[in-house]
## 1
Amino acid sequence: MTRAGARWRDGLLWAALGYLALVLLMPQTKALFALLFPGLDRPLYEQDSFLSLVAGHLALVAASSLAALGIALPAGIFVTRASGADFRGIAESLAAMGQSFPPVAVLALAVPLTGFGSGPALIALTLYGALPILQNTISGLGAVPDSVREAARGVGMAGGQLLLRVELPLAAPIIIAGIRTSVVINIATATIASTVGARTLGSPILIGLNGANIAYVVQGAVLVALLGVLIDLAFERLVGTRPRCAGWR
């Protein structure tokens, strides 16, 4: 089979195309939702396009996940070094506090500082997404066998070279699994961003709840759930591609 043929048999590709088709065809399902939920004057959410809501949702999740990664990955590396071992408990406690603190409370505290919109949600999601990445970074680096480190030092590696060429490649599957957990959690949690004015897939859910319109809630919830499944499948593919340790066979 040619490479192009194999690509078109890729289940992940078809899942992504199916999701995109669903988003684009949602305006055509008005009659279906009118049938499923009789008595509603407006059975289909039409205040924003579903494509723009998905784009806004993904943009918020991507920005917060990158911010969480930029904080948690260096922190995890630092506390696994001899110079930062004493700070490990503090780092884990702060990350756990960020995840246990209710995101709605973070939004309420952040609004006076950043105003309404994506700003408060970005802060809340960053705090919420840092813990899985931090924990898995620590676990992944801690799982690297001491014998491998000693062998690397024996061929002249030390410090940053040892970290970049041996430890991080070996720990990468565990670290990516933590990023996967963080991102999937934030896809669901990002729906609350609509409470402070951000346009996400939480908008039809929030408006549906306020207006007792269950059809809106179903439309938003289905797209959020399927988006989470799609992103989880993408990470499963990424984790399945185990990186090779540079300079080693």
## 2
Amino acid sequence: MRVFITGATGVVGRRVVPLLATAGHDVTCAARSGEQHEAVTKLGARPVDVDLFDRQALTTALAGHDAFINLATHMPRSLGRMFLRSAWRENDHLRRDAVPIMAAAARDAGVGRFIQESFAQIYADAGDGWIGEDARMRPVRYNRSILDAERAVQKFSESGGVGIVLRFAAFYGPDSQQLPFMVALIRRGWGPLPGPPSSFVSSVSHDDAATAVATALSLPAGIYNVTDNEPLRHRDFVDAIARVVGASPPRLFPAWLTQLGGSLARMFSRSQRISNMKLREHGWSPRYPSARDGLPAAIAGLA
């Protein structure tokens, strides 16, 4: 299969590209800088310089491809900046404006499959209940553009293509921004998850997220949650990190501090016991059934 990928040098993309290349797929990656060209080539793919907002240029670049995988994001550069609304503008621009252009270019070029990254934490608080793909969504101002991107994928399917949305749970891995911060805070005695200790957090390792993207090349059209098998309660998640680093069980943030963090902190305080059953029914399974299993390897790999 000929596959075109954006976001190929991101934390998930740089794992997806070698997976597909090793499996025998012919992989092309959008790469703007010389550094990205070099990185993509080392991963086993062919780089191409193309503007993701230029429909005609994209259509030309996509000619002859069977699938388009869009993993392009523009996340805030630090955890502190995540709480600044202005730091999300470029990410919103990509999701709200570029994704419809990419999907339209894929249709123009005759690409049959469009796979789009999305964000599972958009779901409303469900307490102890399991959350499937049809559960109620409750976006906040930081992530409303997710719905724009997902609508573009739905339109792609309605026009005769196979549109896939992958709603990723909270990522962790040795090259993530969040994990070193969480480890450092836990060593100081504080658990970095807002909300009640009994709230559920759903997570997935970068490696497992990458295998889910590879699986999406054969999935029927639709939305799929990408998370591990066993979401953990906030108390259990931070204690799991503490055990790995040899720290005492940390204190969790008080409720008043969560309120000071605004809508983003309140979103992450929700209880989200997200189910991966739909994706597992199509043959995918995570290497790490829960964060308890995956965190030791991720922490060991921290630079």
